[in-house]
Amino acid sequence: MATIKDVAEIAGVTVTTVSRVLNDRGYISETTRKKVYDAMKELSYQPNELARSLFRKKSNIIGLIVPDVSHPFFAKLTSYIEAYAYAAGYKILLCNSYQDSVKEKDYVEMLKRNQVDGIIMGSHTLETSDYLTPTLPIVAIDRDFSNNIPFITSDNYAGGLLATNLLLDKGCKKLAHISGPLELNTPANKRYEAFMNAVLERKVQHVVEQTKLDVYESYKKLAYKIFKEHPDIDGIFASSDMIAAAMMQVSQELGKEVPRDIRIIGYDDVEVASLMTIPLTTIKQPIDEMAQLAIEILLNQMENKKVEIENILPVKLIERKSS
Asked: Which candidate in 40, 197, 198, 292 could, as Cys together with 164 as Cys, close a disulfide (CB 3.0–4.6 Å)?
C-alpha cells in the first residue's frame, strides 16, 4: 500500500509539502499541487481521512440521529439534510436510534469520538438531556432540551388549531386526537394543547390516545381499539400522516365512509398523503426549510456566530378529500 513518503518521492517534493497539499495549508504553487495529485493517482494513494481531520481539527462530517429513517417524515427530512449538507461541503453520518435511549447515547458518544463537526438530533428519549451537552455544535429537531441547544420545530399549536377547527367547522360532534407520547414534553405536544383548547372552548366530546413512533400495523391496532371503544367518533386529528392513513384504512374496513361518516386529518404532508385512494387533508410541515435551517445553524455555530435557540417555522393547512 502506497504511503505519503512514496507520493513525495514520485512527485519530487518533501513529505511536508505533500501534507500541505492534502490539508490545503499554506501556499502551494499549481505546478507542485499537480505533481502531488499526479503522483497520488499513479500510486492509487488514498489519504488517511481520520489523520487529516485530526490535523485540521475538522472532519467535514455531520452526525444525524433519527428514530427510524424508514418513517416517511424522517426519510424526507434526512434526504433534505443530506442535500443541504453536501452542498455546503459536508457528508452525513446517519444513525437510527429506534427510540432506544441506550443506543441513542452510544451514537452520541460515537459521533463525538469520530470528530464529527456537529450533530443534528432528531431522536427523542426521556434520558437524552442528561448526556447531550453543547460541547460541539448541536441542533435539535422538535425537541427543546432547555440547555442552550438550538432547536427547530414547526408551529405545532397553530397546526393543531387549524386541524381541530376544520373538523369542528365541518360539523363533527365527537373528535379523537392521536398524539405522540406526551411525557416526552416536546414542542409537538402543542398540537395536543391546541386540540384540547379548541374542543373545550366549543364544548365538543373528545377522546385522546397517545402512541409512540411505530410500525403501520401498530397504528391499525390502535385504530381498531379506538373504534371499538368509541364507535360514534366522526372526526380524527392524527399527529402524523402515517397514523391518519391507518385510521382511514380501518375506518373503511369497518364500513365507515370517508368523509361522509368520518373526517380525518393528518400532520406532516409526506408524499403518501396525496397518493392515498382518498387524498389526505393534513397540516404541512416545511420539512425542506427545517433541514436547510438545521445545516445553517450548525455552520453558524462552527463559526462561533450567535444563533437563535428557538426556531419555529409556519405550517399550512392542505385540504384534500378526507375532510
From this structure: 198
CATH number at residue 69: 3.40.50.2300
This prediction has a pTM of 0.80
Instruction: Place 130 in a pLDDT band, splitting at 50, 70 and 90.
Output: low
Nearest to 62 by CA among 310, 302, 313: 302
Q: Give the other-Cβ count within 10 Å of 43's Cβ.
A: 16
206 φ, ψ (degrees, to nearest 5):
-155, 160
Tens-digit pLDDT profile for residues 251-272: 999 999 999 999 999 999 998 8
Grid cell, residue 89, equals 461541503
Q: Residue 152: helix, strand or coil by DSSP?
A: strand
Residue 59's SS3 state is: coil
Are residues 170 and 250 both part of a single domain? yes
Query: Does residue 317 belong to any structural domain of this protein?
Result: no
Do the bridges between strand 174-179 and strand 205-210 make them parallel or antiparallel, or are there none, so unpaired?
Answer: parallel
Q: Are residues 217 and 178 in the same domain?
A: yes
CA separation for the pair 213, 106 (Å, rounded): 20
Print the domain residue range for 31.
4-56
Residue located via cell numbers 513525495: 8
What lies within 8 Å, CB to CB, of 297 at 6+ separation is 137, 139, 150, 152, 307, 308, 311
Backbone angles phi, psi at 103, to 5 degrees: -65, -40
Residue-wise pLDDT for 201-229, tens only, equals 999 999 999 998 778 899 999 999 999 99
Whole-angstrom distance between the N-terminal and C-terminal Cα of the chain? 64
